[in-house]
Amino acid sequence: MAQSYYIFRSGRLRRKQNTLYFEQESEDGQLQKVPIPIENVRDLYLFGEIDLNTKLLTFLAQNEVTLHCFNYYGFYIGSFYPRETNVSGYLLVKQVEHYLDPQKRLEIAKEFVAGALFHLRRNLNYYRNRGREVDVSLEVVESSLKRLNECGSVAELMSEEGRARDAYYQAFNEILELQQPYTKRVRRPPDNEVNSLISFGNSLLYTATLSELYVTQLNPTISYLHEPSQRRFSLALDLSEIFKPLIVDRLIFRLLNRGEIDENDFESIGEAKGVYLKEGARKKFVRVFEEYLQTTVKHRRLKRHVSYRHLIRLEAYKLIKHLVNIETYKSLRAWW
Amino acid sequence: MYVIIVYDIEQERVAKVCQYLRRFLYWAQNSVFEGELSEAQLVKVKSGLSKLIDPQRDSVYIYQLPGKKLVKKEILGQEKIVTRTILE
């Protein structure tokens, strides 16, 4: 029911009469106010230059709204993650327990990778059925999937995944009609258009996952595939791994192949090697991303329609069930 | 569910009601709000409203519809409502 709000404008976000107001001065000096129904806000994405004060943060915390900030280039800066209201010491102990025991940790990490690879394969199969030459990549992903069970450590698992992903990115040359061949994934900063799109899409997905984790009792800093307790809310990274090919990659294929985003939508800034999305393209991406998250599929077990966004939360719930020993975790495998 | 709330309230209380509804719904035009609500939220809205109004003098109509997709809405003239979630 609640919505994500994306603010590209510059202005001030304030608490007024117990709801949210976005205020902006228009050219003729008039203050333009947009009221936002607070009860209808899941999270806020700030892309513009926005003033806010602690009074607002207090209010957001009361209403359990997470706030994600992005810088001028559209890079993820950080989140305001309000005080947790859904806490469970019991679950925290269980989370740590599964991290400390290498065997238990591996079991969970393996599921994350298995889900991710399954969706890589699914994407490749989709394009193979449409006559693209992706067999080489497909074989690598297939063999990685088979070898997963033999992996004895998380490091091995990571390298197996890395291999599959490299092959997968090679297939981008077949899937996308590119002028320059796509060589490899480069981050910080992304060095070409495709990398730039992947980076932007992944950071959106990462924040969406974090917002879903906020609703659950899980502690977002304890993760299993990525090394926890450093820098970021790494459990969100773990979970978004499963959804990247399912959501972000497919969106990128669609946008580029339909020409909705093309070379003219990117720019490099100054001397730096980075390639960035222009603001117009960023808005377009955010709009289709949000639409995509809201599309629904019929859930076989729940027997109702659930959105992609909700699937992320269900994934968190499944993980909880695993941690408290109700049901073994099996990551999402898209069935539709 | 999709909810449309229409009210006729005496001037001394009308601002309070308008402010209150802004927390939940989008303002469509004078004395009209609409938007998506959950069952629980609707209960909350109703109890909040009943504290603000004077049942002897004011009146609030609440129309419930199963979902936004089932509403066919047409606007003649000015559209005042801002329901966008992407502000650009």
UniProtKB/TrEMBL annotation, chain A:
Gene expressing this chain: cas1
Origin superkingdom: Bacteria
Protein name: CRISPR-associated endonuclease Cas1
Cofactor requirements of the protein: Mg(2+); Mn(2+)
Keyword Membrane: no
UniProt function note: CRISPR (clustered regularly interspaced short palindromic repeat), is an adaptive immune system that provides protection against mobile genetic elements (viruses, transposable elements and conjugative plasmids). CRISPR clusters contain spacers, sequences complementary to antecedent mobile elements, and target invading nucleic acids. CRISPR clusters are transcribed and processed into CRISPR RNA (crRNA). Acts as a dsDNA endonuclease. Involved in the integration of spacer DNA into the CRISPR cassette.
Protein's GO biological process: defense response to virus; maintenance of CRISPR repeat elements
Recorded family membership: Belongs to the CRISPR-associated endonuclease Cas1 family.
CDD domains associated with the record: Cas1_I-B (cd09722)
Molecular function per GO: DNA binding; DNA endonuclease activity; hydrolase activity; metal ion binding
Alphabetic keyword roster: Antiviral defense, DNA-binding, Endonuclease, Hydrolase, Magnesium, Manganese, Metal-binding, Nuclease
Binding partners and assembly: Homodimer, forms a heterotetramer with a Cas2 homodimer.
Originating organism: Brockia lithotrophica
Coiled-coil residue windows: none
Record EC number: 3.1.-.-
Residues where Mn(2+) binds: E161, H226, E241
UniProtKB/TrEMBL annotation, chain B:
CDD domains, sorted: Cas2_I_II_III (cd09725)
Keywords linked to the UniProt accession: Antiviral defense, Endonuclease, Hydrolase, Magnesium, Metal-binding, Nuclease
GO biological process: defense response to virus; maintenance of CRISPR repeat elements
Residues that coordinate or bind Mg(2+): D8
EC assignment: 3.1.-.-
Gene3D superfamilies: 3.30.70.240
Domain of life of the source: Bacteria
Keyword check for Hydrolase: yes
Pfam families: CRISPR_Cas2 (PF09827)
InterPro entries: CRISPR_associated_Cas2, Virulence_VapD/CRISPR_Cas2
GO molecular function term, any single one: metal ion binding
Cofactor: Mg(2+)
Subunit and interaction comment: Homodimer, forms a heterotetramer with a Cas1 homodimer.
Family that this chain belongs to: Belongs to the CRISPR-associated endoribonuclease Cas2 protein family.
Function: CRISPR (clustered regularly interspaced short palindromic repeat), is an adaptive immune system that provides protection against mobile genetic elements (viruses, transposable elements and conjugative plasmids). CRISPR clusters contain sequences complementary to antecedent mobile elements and target invading nucleic acids. CRISPR clusters are transcribed and processed into CRISPR RNA (crRNA). Functions as a ssRNA-specific endoribonuclease. Involved in the integration of spacer DNA into the CRISPR cassette.
The protein's name: CRISPR-associated endoribonuclease Cas2
The species this protein was found in: Brockia lithotrophica
Lineage: Bacteria, Bacillati, Bacillota, Bacilli, Bacillales
